[in-house]
Fold this protein.
Amino acid sequence: MEAMAGELERLRAEREELDSRIRLLESQFGASLTPAGEGDAAGTGAGGGGGGGGATACPIRRRGNGFAAADGLPADMIYRYSRHLLLPDFGVEGQRKLSQSSILVVGAGGLGSPVALYLAACGVGCLGIVDGDDVELNNLHRQIIHKEAYVGKSKVKSAADACREINSSINVMEYHHTLIPCNALEIVRKYDIVVDATDNLPTRYMISDCCVLLNKPLISGAALGLEGQLTVYHHNGSPCYRCLFPNPPPVAACQRCSDSGVLGVVPGVIGCLQALEAIKVATDVGEPLSGRMLLFDALSARIRIVKIRGSSTVCTVCGENSAFTQDDFQKFDYENFTQSPMSDKSAPSLDILPGSARVTCKEYKRLVDNGERHLLLDVRPAHHFQIASVSQSLNIPLSELEEKLQMLETSLKDTTDASSSDKPPSLYVVCRRGNDSQIAVQLLREKGFLSAKDIIGGLQSWAQDVDPDFPVY
Ligand SMILES: [Zn+2]
């Protein structure tokens, strides 16, 4: 019996191997199997939808042979997805719908990783992945689709390769650029369902508007710190993002993972749930989270589901009298509307001080080398200061600065006492990226610390321009 089981196992493995070779060959002849100009073949679809590909639907790869029955699933699909087929509520019909669906995942980061992996594994017909960024080492703790070998390479390529390694029978489309109003309509239009796995406010509004204009359900997720949330917009009468938030929140209320941190598993949990909702919408199985929002609190291990209001009749985009057209969409300035950038790379930088109140990192380094008496005030939060700091700097977080001016006064006095010169010590202020330090200098100057100067670009510039060994985070 054991020998027979072994033989069976061996034959199945051999069949899988043959199937995958057949698929590889088929994909090399991809042009004849998929619409002209859209074949992704074995991974050559990079940016395929970004050009003038027109509005054709995302191609779903179909096999020319191996069908078990005229209306049944191909034999290799039956074996691969047998655990799905065994589910009475899902079954052959669910799997067939999945294999005929096309899903676009916007963002190949912490949320997008599990979304793309699960959607590839479970056999969606066509999976599109959009992301303009490259893989960075500090992504890997949560963006589990990427491997170390891909650091410095395109996230989309990395994610698509990982998906193809899991399931070579699906079509994976790569869009290696940031989704923006002038390319969003053309890409989104090719897909049945959109998953928002991005992490910034302007993109959230943009994807929602785009989905309303093209009438696509939107699986929206967010994760920050130790909390996450999830809902399905614009589906079965559920609202769009603008129905819930007609006006963007003030800039100060918007946080990002790169500023506030995120525990790696949290986007993983939300991303898995997004994949689940996408599968439910694609197959019409179960009750999608439309009109409801799931809130996840990792610390207390609590999941709450709250009802949210239905679509608003006065919504400027999906409301009854909305005059918002595709043309308006393409011209809409989402960054200006939300007062925040679409990409981390263009994080907002303040410029509120006169040039005389600022020095570059290199200038600061020179005066340290020249032995100029001074005090370096670091205004980052204490837990940032613990990550890394410049030696001999004094940490008073910006939020506590006003109430701790006495402490600063004392430190300055100590610096004076230790100095042999009569010249009062100068005061330099640093933070992580050079924004908070400007606010601090403005405050300090108002409070009489007239020598306070900002170090331009903060510790990020320090690491870049002066000390390459200084840890970047
Ligand atoms: Zn709306």
